[in-house]
Design brief:
alpha+beta, eight-stranded antiparallel sheet, 14 helices, 20 strands, 25% helix
């Protein structure tokens, strides 16, 4: 898990550090501990105090999953060793504090890529398992934990356990938001690639029905697929979108000048977002203008464009601290999924967001494949929509509560790794294995050593 802080400790522990998620909406104070060895991690777990502790990574969880008001937060980023790479078999053994960015740097020159990546490469392996992250390839590859062959977990009793798929402890840990223990290492199965470039197809969809029809008919041809949606468009254009899909480019698709170093991992970086931006910068007017320009500039149809991995998967990583664009009030990222056959619910929710005029310029729709085994893992077969909304928008809390109810009534769920406001009474309807998770956690951690603001809010 991860959160954003106002300091970067170089020592084992700091008191009264303000910790917040990437959305910057609900800061709380905690003792920040940065273990530099497995022994220090075990000591931190023993000494985290009456309010318990929670592991965290690189600060990209949007809500309160890696916060612990009045307790301890274990910053695991100092445990960042890559222990072993099987370049023939395609596996890597690494510490949980290793970032996906670091894995890409190490693995791409060897012809391997991470099996799943979200919209940022600045997440740790431990966070990727704890949130059971998904990417643009879920309809093909599932979520991150599906590719984990084994992990080492430091539990509340101080024991380090080797945990493998197919066991209750693995299923509780995958998507368990750090509440079963501290992940120390993981062995991950990798994706073979011939180049570090993507072959990308782009097309425009005129409305939501057109978009869903295109996705349903042709998604099976692509490993990666995502659609940006204009949620300010109304009327006949409601849900209009730019659909981007692709796969890793084969070597023979590269021009001669790029074949000399086909596996080079190149990234770009723009100036950081200022710490203080004018309030109201993201108004309906400015976001509406951006959305119009973004939709119009997209090609009606374009195939086979070569694009860097960083540009295809992680465009916002090129803008450091982009979350500050929402101002002091921060933002809410709202993500839900509803199953196939419940498209009417998706249409109603998109229409309501459009009519509400929520100024969101980061809104994406994807299709999920088979469910993953994690008891609190988010993906189920269906349609998932994620959008960023300024937290200061009047009436936002009540509006999202209404959307939660509609999602739950349709048999869907919201993503806990991005949540900071879900009502606990809706959780059981969204996650049917919730009681199993609570029972295992009570047996594994009877003293409540591992706890977070999210866990307290939702009685996990």
């Amino acid at each position: 898990m991860s959160a954003d802080t106002d300091s970067d400790p170089d020592v084992m522990g700091l008191d009264h550090t303000t910790v917040t998620g990437w959305g910057r909406t609900a800061p709380t104070a905690a003792r920040l501990i940065r273990p530099r060895s497995y022994e220090e991690a075990a000591a931190a777990v023993r000494d985290c105090g009456a309010r318990g502790g929670i592991p965290r990574g690189l600060g990209r969880a949007y809500g309160d999953a890696a916060q612990n008001a009045g307790g301890s937060v274990l910053d695991m980023t100092a445990l960042d060793r890559v222990h072993a790479i099987d370049a023939d078999g395609g596996t890597v053994l690494c510490d949980a504090g290793v970032s996906l960015h670091r894995l890409m740097e190490v693995l791409l020159p060897l012809g391997w890529f991470v099996p799943v990546t979200p919209g940022t490469r600045y997440v740790t392996v431990g966070g990727a398992i704890g949130a059971d992250i998904h990417g643009k390839n879920h309809h093909v590859s599932g979520s991150f934990a599906r590719h984990v062959l084994a992990l080492e977990l430091l539990t509340a009793d101080g024991e380090i356990r080797t945990v493998i798929p197919g066991t209750p402890l693995f299923d509780a840990t995958a998507g368990g938001m750090g509440l079963t223990g501290v992940i120390l290492t993981a062995t991950i199965r990798l994706q073979p690639v011939e180049t570090s470039l993507m072959s990308v197809d782009t097309e425009r969809a005129t409305d939501l029905d057109d978009l869903m029809a295109r996705l349903a008919a042709t998604d099976h041809r692509y490993r990666y697929s995502v659609a940006w949606i204009d949620l300010l468009a109304r009327g006949a254009a409601t849900g209009r979108a730019v659909l981007t899909r692709g796969d890793h480019a084969p070597l023979d698709a590269l021009p001669a000048r790029l074949r000399r170093d086909p596996l080079a991992f190149r990234t770009s970086r723009l100036p950081a977002t200022p710490a203080i931006l004018p309030e109201g910068l993201l108004s309906r007017t400015t976001v509406g203008l951006f959305n119009e320009l973004w939709y119009r500039k997209a090609p009606r149809t374009r195939t086979g464009r070569l694009q860097r991995i960083s540009g295809f998967f992680h465009p916002l990583d090129g803008v450091p601290n982009w979350n500050r664009v929402y101002g002091r009030g921060g933002f809410v990222q709202y993500q839900f999924v509803v199953g196939y056959g419940r498209e009417d619910a998706l249409r109603r929710i998109v229409r309501r967001i459009s009519e509400r005029r929520c100024p969101s310029f980061l809104a994406v729709l994807k299709r999920f494949g088979e469910s993953d085994p994690g008891w609190l893992s988010f993906p189920v077969p269906g349609w998932t929509l994620a959008l960023d909304i300024p937290a200061a928008l009047p009436g936002l809390g009540a509006f999202l509560d209404e959307l939660d109810e509609e999602v739950a009534a349709a048999g869907g769920r919201v993503y806990l790794a991005k949540d900071a406001r879900l009502r606990p009474d809706l959780l059981a309807a969204m996650y049917p294995r919730l009681d199993d998770f609570r029972e295992l956690r009570a047996r594994l951690d009877p003293r409540g050593v591992f706890v977070s603001d999210l866990a307290r809010r939702l009685s996990l």
